[in-house]
């Protein structure tokens, strides 16, 4: 691979927005609310935020520094920084995790496209909550429609990836991310003003620790890594396109703050709305698809045009936020095949898009045709989600932190954090302590707790 020719992001703003574009997505607006709903509300959010601060931030900074130093795809990065050791297996596990996530994530991203069409053709008008639930169930179990949307979504991802890093990834994120933020804020205001919304606000703000069972810790940790795009080398790959002037710590804090803010705001959209129309918070993956159409209907009873505009805008932006995330997963694997196997980017991208289409179809069918096929009580979709978010990402994060904390030369760590001595890094010791001890111990403790060998 020719170092000089490697692509880079054009600006600092582009760096933050592309990384935030990867982090902010269905994980925040779809997965975070339903995990919060399934795990009891405010107490889960507190544990989640603790995971972001104690584990997410150190791991994100590590992924940034490893990626920028190595200037290579995730497996190549370990080859360069730890040649002749088994560390590159960690990179390969990341590539595999990205591939699995890309496949089932695109199914949900496809659902957002269906909802754009529903919103544009004004089909939400006049439906009741019960009708929203039945029509969603009928849609996801249909053998064709979700698959067509899935294929279209993967195709859109593919087209941006083949355009490359600066023109494809950076430019799209710069346009899409600010728009998403504005619409989210407007929706929070609409949602909390609905009649009966207080119960939802209370659910988000009043922790009930009696609901904290052992699984809550694993869910919160998995959600933190998933939402921050950590543990599979996604931000490591993006960091390989950062230039030498990017302040890694500052960028990580910006991305972590934006991501957490968007997740919590999504909670403030979904739960007040759900409680207001009597929908239970533990509806799992269907939660946002059945509560939000209700919000749009009820928030502007006297002004149907506003209901219409908000519904269309929201689903467009949700699709866009998903797109900036699928692009980042796709990029991990594209960069890997392109650099390690010397395939052209176009060819690498084609292989990945094709493979994700096949696996995605399997996941999509598991909501209908093949729903009887389960492993440990989970359909294929849930299984992919469980294995990646709750096993592979925490394991990947554990390895990143051990690699940066114990294996990597301390000079490299310091050089990258301080941009070769030009920046101050007041948290240096704390950072090293977190990588060496705190993060690994916490991750192992959560696993051990989940296995029931020990209990928090
Ligand atoms: N962080 C993304 C989200 O919250 C999902 C993602 C996972 C992106 C893994 C890249 C890699 O939607």
Describe the structure.
It is a single chain. The chain has 456 residues and is mostly helical. It has a single domain, classed as Hydantoin permease (Orthogonal Bundle). It is 75% helix and 0% strand. The chain contains 18 helices and no strands. It has helices at residues 12-23, 26-38, 42-70, 74-81, 88-120, 129-141, 145-163, 165-192, 198-205, 214-227, 234-239, 248-276, 287-299, 304-340, 345-365, 380-407, 410-417, 428-450. The longest helix has 37 residues, at 304-340. The chain is globular. The termini are far apart. The relative contact order is 0.20. It binds phenylalanine. Phenylalanine is lined by residues 22-23, 25-28, 101, 226-227, 229, 232, 234, 325, 328-329.
What's the domain count? 1
Question: Using DSSP, what is the number of strands?
Answer: 0
Structural class: mainly alpha
Q: Kindly state the percentage of residues in helix.
A: over 70%
- Which small compounds were modeled alongside the protein? phenylalanine
What would CATH call the class? Mainly Alpha
Query: For the CA atoms, what is the radius of gyration?
Result: 21 Å
């Amino acid at each position: 691979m020719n170092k000089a020719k490697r692509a880079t992001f054009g600006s600092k703003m582009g760096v933050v927005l592309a990384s935030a574009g990867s982090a902010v997505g269905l994980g925040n607006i779809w997965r975070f609310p339903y995990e919060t709903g399934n795990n009891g509300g405010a107490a889960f959010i507190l544990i989640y935020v603790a995971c972001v601060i104690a584990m997410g931030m150190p791991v994100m900074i590590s992924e940034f520094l490893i990626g920028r130093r190595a200037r290579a795809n995730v497996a190549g990065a370990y080859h360069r920084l730890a040649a002749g050791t088994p560390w590159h297996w960690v990179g390969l596990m990341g590539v595999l995790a990205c591939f699995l996530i890309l496949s089932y994530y695109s199914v949900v991203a496809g659902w957002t496209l269906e909802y754009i069409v529903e919103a544009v053709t004004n089909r939400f008008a006049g439906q009741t909550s019960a009708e929203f639930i039945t029509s969603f169930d009928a849609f996801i179990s249909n053998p064709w429609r979700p698959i067509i949307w899935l294929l279209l979504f993967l195709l859109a991802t593919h087209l941006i990836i083949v355009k490359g890093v600066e023109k494809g990834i950076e430019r799209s994120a710069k346009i899409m991310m600010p728009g998403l933020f504005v619409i989210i804020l407007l929706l929070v205001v609409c949602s909390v003003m609905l009649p009966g919304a207080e119960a939802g606000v209370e659910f988000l703000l009043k922790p009930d620790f009696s609901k904290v069972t052992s699984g809550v810790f694993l869910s919160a940790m998995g959600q933190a890594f998933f939402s921050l795009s950590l543990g599979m080398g996604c931000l490591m790959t993006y960091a390989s396109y950062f230039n030498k002037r990017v302040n890694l710590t500052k960028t990580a804090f910006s991305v972590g703050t934006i991501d957490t803010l968007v997740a919590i705001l999504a909670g403030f959209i979904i739960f007040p709305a759900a409680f207001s129309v009597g929908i239970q918070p533990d509806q799992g993956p269907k939660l946002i698809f059945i509560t939000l159409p209700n919000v749009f209907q009820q928030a502007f009873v006297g002004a149907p045009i506003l209901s219409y505009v908000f519904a269309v805008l929201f689903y467009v932006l949700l699709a866009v936020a998903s797109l900036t995330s699928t692009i980042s997963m796709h990029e991990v694997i594209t960069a890997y095949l392109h650099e390690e196997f010397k395939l052209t980017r176009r060819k690498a991208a084609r292989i990945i898009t094709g493979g994700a289409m096949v696996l995605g179809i399997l996941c999509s069918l598991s909501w209908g045709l093949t729903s009887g096929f389960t492993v440990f009580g989970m359909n294929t979709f849930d299984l992919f989600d469980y294995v990646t978010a709750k096993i592979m990402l925490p394991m990947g994060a554990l390895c990143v932190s051990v690699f940066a904390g114990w294996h990597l030369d301390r000079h490299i760590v310091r050089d990258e954090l301080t941009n070769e001595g030009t920046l101050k890094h007041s948290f240096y010791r704390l950072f090293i302590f977190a990588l060496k001890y705190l993060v690994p111990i916490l991750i192992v403790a959560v696993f051990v707790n989940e296995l029931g060998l020990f209990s928090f």
